[in-house]
Amino acid sequence: MDVIICPDESQVGIVSAAKIAKLAAEVGPKVVFGVATGSSPLATYAELARRVATGKLDVSQAQAFALDEYVGLPHDHPLSYTDTIRRTVTEPLGLDPDRVHVPDGRLEGLADAGERYEAAIKAAGGVDIQILGIGSNGHVGFNEPSSSLHSRTRMKTLTQQTREDNARFFESLAEVPRHCVTQGLGTILDARHVVLVANGVGKAAAIAAIVEGPVTAMWPGSVLQLHEHATIVVDEAAASLLTLADYYRQAYESLPAWQRLDL
Ligand code: GLP
Questions:
Q1: Residues 185-195: tens digit of each pLDDT
Q2: Phi, psi of 259 (to 5 degrees)
Q3: From ligand 1's centre to the CA of 34, what distance in Å?
Q4: If you count Cβ atoms within 10 Å of the first and of the last residue's Cβ in the chain, which end, N or C, has fewer?
Q5: Nearest 10 degrees: Cα torsion 147, 149, 155, 156
Q6: Main-chain dihedrals φ then ψ at residue 19, nearest 5 degrees
Q7: In the prediction, which pLDDT does 216 show?
Q8: Residue 196 has what pLDDT?
Q9: Cβ neighbours of 177 (radius 10 Å)
Q10: How many angstroms separate the alpha carbon of residue 50 from the centre of ligand 1?
Q11: Catalytic residue (choose from 69, 118, 144, 235)
Q12: Any residues with Cβ below 6 Å from ligand 1, and which?
């Protein structure tokens, strides 16, 4: 696991986007992104969009697979992840909307929504670069604590903590859906590279647990310790509980030239 500690949120966006762009250039124009919703990756998407606009990143043939979707919200609901991904990823980066996929959270067809999504990811050749945020309880996608570390895309029940965290976007807590369809932890582990971003002191406990704690279903993001190519990009506040923070700083500062990022 590589941990990169940045001074602030905007630098998290710049550094994570540089890492993603470097990986995307290595894959080529048919790169397959995994994309997350939430506020954490917004600066990353803005920076990726800037790179597309300046011709430094070619996404004309790229595909994208969202991590998750609420159950029961119509696709055009502004808080559905279908609409959120359209606004925050597809349009700013200029991705072809037909190549951007989101799990199907509609009630009809829910039983096989996971299987269909897994098949679509497989047909695309798998995810090359998975972009992740993290919940304050350590969830990635919507894989809540106690999720199987081998799980695949399926319906999950949201925890009260997650519903409360996400209630800020809705009119009231009662309106936050109770269920979702999310890529599983096994699905996420299949991505060839993972780049997780986190900001703020509210994420510090989760970051310390997933980077330095035991691999446990109680902190689902800790499964990334089993991934060969996981990069964690955090601001100082989110890094504040990391025991080996100085080591991560030294490692990043002394990267050999071929591993350095073009910021
Ligand atoms: C939601 C999403 C996650 C995201 C998390 C954190 O629960 N399903 O993918 O990482 O929120 O959101 P934020 O980045 O806004 O803190």
A1: 999 999 999 99
A2: -100, -5
A3: 14
A4: C
A5: 20
A6: -65, -45
A7: 98
A8: 98
A9: 18
A10: 23
A11: 144
A12: 36-40, 67-68, 133-135, 141-142, 162, 166
